[in-house]
Design brief:
two-stranded antiparallel ribbon, six-stranded mixed β-sheet, about 15% strand
Length: about 280
């Protein structure tokens, strides 16, 4: 489209003040060519504005400029609303693996538990401090993509949750104790959000390995709900394949994070947990 075409449309629109914008939209939409729709974008948008990738909170790695205004949904990227038809389709083979059970085996005499409660850095440190917990790992689970990366889960299209997998000795720490640490660490009434962290990867979830864990988790949720005046949105689902997160995420706060401010992981420590990037 040339500048002359743009000028013509603009002037003709001014010459007919009685023509409603709705009629103009309908007329342009009925055209069979893409070129006729282009002047509409020029007339009502700001041509001088560009949209760099960093402008978006969690940009998709596969986002194409041509689909920026038609498929980009802020609510979708933040974890709300329906999936856009233009988003990457789920590969059945990849999804079958990712949705399979966690087939890792805990150390002899130990058991696994899995929790999602927002950014996994602070959640992991909280569980590191629980007596009887022998190992913690942060990772991704409950999604549809095999071997996801941190960038993948931040795209908002894989349905993964940031989780902490806890290995514990049931002789020293019962499952109820882990659940108390879980409830105390986050707000279970906010959907897909913890504080300033927004997205489906930050949802609240308890992922059980045994029927006994499921029973205790549901009873614990019911008891905890009685203490709150807002509805708990925590999901309780079977534990699925666990993908260990990148090494720099592991024990992030205990190691000091980016600024080197180490926070204690000593058993029984009650120091406030400061979660920083």
């Amino acid at each position: 489209m040339t500048f002359r075409t743009f000028q013509f449309l603009s002037s003709s629109h001014k010459q007919k003040p009685d023509t409603s914008r709705k009629k103009m939209f309908n007329s342009l939409a009925s055209s069979s060519t893409r070129t006729s729709a282009a002047p509409l974008l020029c007339c009502f948008s700001k041509p001088s504005i560009s949209f760099p990738r960093k402008f978006f909170l969690c940009p998709s790695k596969n986002l194409k400029p041509s689909s920026l205004f038609t498929s980009m949904s802020w609510l979708g990227k933040l974890g709300f609303g329906a999936r856009s038809p233009s988003e990457p389709s789920v590969d059945p083979h990849s999804a079958a693996i990712a949705q399979g059970p966690d087939d890792d085996i805990p150390a002899p005499g130990q058991q696994f538990a899995q929790f999602g409660a927002g950014c996994f850095w602070g959640v992991e440190l909280a569980f590191q401090r629980v007596p009887g917990v022998t190992k913690t790992e942060v990772g991704y689970s409950q999604g549809f993509l095999h071997n996801p990366t941190y960038n993948d889960i931040c795209s908002g299209t894989t349905n993964h949750s940031e989780v902490v997998r806890v290995q514990y000795d049931p002789k020293e720490c019962d499952y109820e104790t882990l659940l108390e640490a879980f409830w105390a660490r986050h707000d279970p009434t906010t959907l897909n959000r913890q504080g300033n962290d927004v997205g489906t990867q930050y949802r609240s979830g308890i992922y059980f390995y045994t029927p006994e864990q499921e029973k205790v988790a549901r009873e614990s949720l019911e008891e905890h709900q009685k203490k709150l005046n807002r509805k708990i949105v925590t999901e309780i689902l079977p534990a699925k394949k666990f993908y260990r997160a990148e090494e720099y995420h592991q024990q992030y706060l205990a190691k000091g994070g980016r600024f080197g401010f180490q926070q204690s992981a000593e058993k029984g420590c009650n120091d406030p947990i400061r979660c920083y990037g």
